[in-house]
Specification:
- By secondary structure, the chain is mainly alpha-helical.
- It contains 16 helices and no strands.
- Helix 6 packs across helix 14, helix 8 packs antiparallel against helix 16 and helix 10 runs parallel beside helix 13.
- It is globular.
- It starts with 12 loop residues before the first helix and ends with a helix.
- The model has no long low-confidence stretch (mean pLDDT about 75).
């Protein structure tokens, strides 16, 4: 008796990709009216009430942010597959401090890493012979100005705020890298890190992937990332909804408004104990801007949460001594505060 094995027909990759893109676009168009319908028709809440506006904010922003994350991270992961750390490190190692800091800050934008990746990245860069200042330019830029947050800001607030955010973050990263590089603080790197430095360049293994492999890897990475970020997104959007619905405008203005000359350093200090990535802070930024907080103060808060949070200090303490960590915190905090004041002055 002969058994015939039937092969399930496979759908061509372009068809699957086009269908996914169309489904994403339709969900993006429908999510805002669907949130209003659920809030004010299905749940029967009233327009203009604190609770109603908070629920509407949450139900609109959560799917919006998830859609942005899913679409953007998938695309960015495809692009980032051509720029793995193994390729970035030797590129930066061959450059001097000034061109290397500019290049590292730019590469940090397209290679998003959170603070939990700081230690392996730091060790890997030092091991490859990347100058200390260039390493810090990358470590500042990567969490502060990642492309996910940039495109999300573009989608939620328009290109003006998104480009201002990118320019501000790149400026802090470049200046921070240059300052740290000029101070000659290599002796404050943990001793065991220098012992790991490679004596000679290792040959780089080349792996050739098909587009099907790259799309599959990008989707799996996106799925895992969204699952990991979901608690932070829900918490951030929930806090943003509370601010949007309940926080008195007068209170926000008193703490972070233009009338308070110390607003920028206050929000930077308030951000230090927090831990989030740039995507998780965007709903809070949206709510604070809606309450009238100036752009510079709001961006300073967002950059401080992602670049100088307390958990990152604890992580970086494993690879650097206290004087270097203190200089890193001081340089980045000073840059963020300066950017905040500058944007408050320029953007009225």
């Amino acid at each position: 008796m002969t058994t015939l094995a039937l092969r399930r027909p496979t759908i061509p990759l372009p068809v699957v990709t086009a269908a996914a893109a169309i489904a994403w676009l339709m969900a993006w168009i429908l999510e805002a009216p669907a949130a209003d319908w659920v809030t004010f028709s299905v749940l029967g809440l009233e327009h203009g009430t604190h609770f109603g506006e908070a629920i509407a904010f949450f139900l609109e922003d959560l799917p919006k942010v998830l859609l942005l994350l899913t679409g953007i991270v998938t695309i960015v992961t495809l692009i980032r597959g051509f720029f793995p750390p193994e390729r970035i490190r030797p590129i930066l190692a061959r450059r001097g401090l000034v061109p290397g800091s500019f290049a590292a800050a730019g590469l940090g934008v397209v290679t998003p890493f959170c603070s939990c990746s700081a230690v392996p990245l730091f060790i890997g860069f030092v091991e490859a012979g990347v100058p200390l200042g260039v390493t810090f330019a990358f470590l500042i830029s990567s969490p502060m100005v990642n492309e996910v947050a940039l495109v999300m800001l573009w989608g939620l607030f328009g290109p003006g705020i998104a480009l201002l955010y990118m320019a501000a973050g790149l400026t802090v990263a470049i200046v921070g890298g240059l300052v740290i590089g000029r101070l000659g603080l290599e002796r404050y790197v943990a001793d065991y890190v220098w012992k790991l430095q490679a004596p000679a360049a290792q040959p780089m293994i080349s792996i050739h992937l098909t587009w099907s492999d790259r799309l599959s890897d990008a989707w799996m990475y996106t799925r895992d990332l969204v699952r990991k970020l979901l608690p932070y997104l829900v918490a951030g959007i929930g806090l943003g909804a509370l601010i949007h619905g309940y926080a008195p405008t007068d209170l926000v203005a008193a703490i972070g408004g233009r009338s308070n000359p110390f607003a920028v350093p206050i929000v930077v200090v308030l951000a230090v104990p927090m831990y989030s990535n740039a995507a998780g802070t965007i709903p809070i930024v949206q709510a604070l801007l809606g309450k009238g907080m100036p752009l510079g103060t709001t961006l300073a808060f967002m950059m401080a949460v992602t670049a100088i949070s307390l958990p990152e200090f604890v992580i970086l303490r494993r690879v650097m001594k206290l004087p270097l960590l203190a200089v890193f915190i001081g340089v980045v905090a000073t840059g963020i505060v300066t950017i905040g004041y500058l944007f408050n002055f320029v953007v009225s």
